[in-house]
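Workshop exercise sheet. Pairs work together: one partner reads the sequence aloud, the other fills in the structure field after running the prediction. Swap roles for the next sheet.
Pair: D.N. / O.F.
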Amino acid sequence: MKNTLSTNKFFLLCLTFFSISFLTSCDPTVSDLIGKEFAMNDGYHIIKFKSETSYYVYQKPYNCGGDGSWSFNDGKVILGPNDSNCESTRELEDTYDISLFK
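Structure field:
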């Protein structure tokens, strides 16, 4: 009886651990992005999702940023055009996998 009780506790502990691991490894949702900043893979640009439809992007170390619109579809973040003065910042308009924004 005692052995069965220990086995059940071990099983529940493992189940809890794997459930937490699975939940924390999932891709972010749209609501997870809003209000947060993320570094783009190029090492120069930072994007902040201001709302469910707008973002601000800037290039460091330069004072070069702009506002734009974004959307989400089928696991992809779609960055629309932004009004930055810098060409490289404007060129970020593209579709990105949401896993980039962890």
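Discussion prompt: The chain is about 30% helix and 35% strand. What would you look at next?
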